[in-house]
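Continuing the batch. This is chain 6 of the set; chains 1 through 5 are on the previous pages. Same settings as before, nothing changed between runs. Recording input and output for traceability.
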Amino acid sequence: MNGVLNIDKPGGMTSHDVVEQVRGLVRSAKVGHAGTLDPNATGVLIVLVGKATKVSRFLMGLDKEYVFTIQLGVETDTLDRWGEVVSTSSTDGVRSREIMEVASRFRGRYQQIAPSVSALKHRGVPLYKLARRGEPTPVKTRVVMIRDFEVLDINHPHVTIRVVCSSGTYVRSLARDMGKRLGCGASVFSLRRTRIGSFGLDEAVALADLTAKPSCLESVILTVEEGLRHLPQIPLKAESVERIRTGGQPTAGDFHEPDLDFDGDFVALTDENGTIVGIAKRSGRQGSMLKTERIL
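Output for chain 6:
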């Protein structure tokens, strides 16, 4: 079996736990995911089966959408309510107008400090492993893009927010930074990923439903082509398909329309039936328009 599953991950499970359950259902050693979700978080998790595991990196960079609730006045060592409380403060002076004003400042690019319990690595070791061992964790920063940051509800001391952000954004860091800007501290109270690219909750299948009725797998698994629907798709000439599949690099003569114009860096090269042959990237080399990144 090959394809892409949009799974609504329950809380209390790691992304690896979900992969293991799916592996048992499809009886395939090749099962992976396209981006982890915290164990206590719920929502969209893209699981890849069979040859779809080859395209994980072309899905991991998609924008994400989350709906999360923060608790004002409470800071923890993990930046969420499942960690040890390190400080508390009064929120009596925090007004709704101030919350809305601070929220508006998050839109755009900003340099974010990753949580000390993140999966980012230092000298090959994930930060969360260093933290668990009680070792100091170095500060890791990255520039992220916040495309939308909308306050959905204020019910002191809880604030519910919808965020659309670039891949690599840490929601727990957003909660911490919002608490700092409000002067009272904050931590994540609940977290749900509602979208990855075009993969939304409305199309997701609950893991419990999948395990209760494995026969429904055939009806919910997407083809690789459907999973990569965000990529522009450009057909190869029939006589060029086998050459590309066996390692040849695409040239202008491989396409019906050699003057290629598409958004983004990557493009799906297809045969004349729409089956993806491989993924190519814009190439800056003189005399070559594209360079294959992955052959399927």
